[in-house]
Amino acid sequence: MTGNREIHLANRPQGWPTEDTFRLVETDVPTPGPGQLVVRNQYLSVDPYMRGRMNDVKSYVPPFALDAPLDGAAVGEVVASESPDVAVGDTVLHGLGWREYALLDATSARPVDPSLAPVSAYLGVLGMPGLTAYAGLLEVAAMKPGETVFVSAAAGAVGSLVGQIAKLKGAARVVGSAGSPAKVERLRALGFDAAFDYHDGVRESLQAAAPDGIDVYFDNVGGDHLEAAISAMNLHGRVAVCGMIAQYNATEPPAAPRNLTLVIGKRLTLRGFLVNDHNDMRSTFVSDVSGWLREGKLSYDETVVDGIENAPDAFLGLLRGDNVGKMLVKV
Questions:
Q1: Nearest Cα residue to 17 out of 180, 220, 251
Q2: Residue 189: how many CB atoms within 10 A of its CB?
Q3: Nearest 5°: phi and psi at 134?
Q4: Start-to-end C-alpha separation, the chain
Q5: What phi and psi values does residue 23 have, to the nearest 5 degrees?
Q6: Domain 4-124+301-330, CATH number (from 3.40.50.300, 3.30.1490.20, 3.90.180.10, 3.40.50.1000)
Q7: Do 312 and 22 contact (CB within 8 A), yes or no?
Q8: DSSP string covering 100-156
Q9: 101-144 residue pLDDT tens
Q10: Strand order from edge to edge, sheet including 148-151
């Protein structure tokens, strides 16, 4: 352990971030104090919510600091420990990504078992994206067997799991939108009953895919997708608002949705949520999902970019929709 590399936030972007938004910085490998660990990160997560943290605005999570390392979920091996509870060689999940070596309190690390799944899975299907999909669909949207579900950005880390979980929990029909013909084909392979490329027109494509309407919409996009879903909703439909990636880099107010008055007559429920509000579901989630993985009933995709120096490219690719499934950086 002779050197450490970190990705710092160099400036606050206006609109789309660029490579100049980030800076690769070389530092010393940290030394742990009492109760602390040093973790050699193996995989880092890049996630859409990180774009909001680049703005200096009040939100549900503090903004990233300028000229300091970004952070986010990571999984890695403990290489130094001053805690009796965590041993060198343990694999842990923690929140100090965007760097090769992380110094953290042992209480901030959650041990994971690499014999149960590849360690990268704890950043995806068995991690935050998986719990987001599970809790958002089953608790926030309260999906019932026999209902029709629509998922936007359905080829992503969260959306691809939402569609599969919906089918496993008895949805009658699951529809997904994605950004390319290849992604549409992947959704069909994952068991979606219908899928479409949103470039072909969201409202028209959704109407054709769900002619009898939808009961649940899992929203990862916002904008025209939310407008189309509201129009297609059946009475007492529910929307789980997970993200609105269509607006994260916008410099002007969104043009849609323009049909919110339909919420009244249709008696719709639109509910935003954060995954950390549903940690009480974690044990049930892990039990269900690990069982489905063992039985071959649930699949997941990963797009892996090699090298900490390429973490900004991975993040920009995520915002462009280059990924299929979970976007990861292999350190």
A1: 251
A2: 10
A3: -65, -50
A4: 14
A5: -140, 130
A6: 3.90.180.10
A7: yes
A8: SEEEEEGGG-EE--TTTS-GGGGGTTTSHHHHHHHHIIIIIS---TT-EEEESSTTB
A9: 999 999 999 999 898 889 999 999 999 999 999 999 999 999 99
A10: 194-197, 173-178, 148-151, 214-219, 233-241, 269-272
User: Token match 């089953």: residue?
Assistant: 138
With the C-alpha atoms ordered 261, 262, 268, 269, is the resulting torsion angle positive or negative?
negative
What is the CATH number that goes with domain 128-276? 3.40.50.720
Tokens of 129: 């994206």
Model pLDDT, residue 162: 98
In sequence order, what are the beta bridge partners of 41? 76
Count CA atoms within 13 Å of residue 52 on its CB side.
Answer: 15
CA distance 68 to 62: 13
pLDDT bucket at 252, cuts 50 / 70 / 90: confident
Residue matched to tokens 């990504």: 97
Domains of the chain: which residue ranges?
Answer: 4-124+301-330, 128-276
pTM score of the predicted model: 0.93
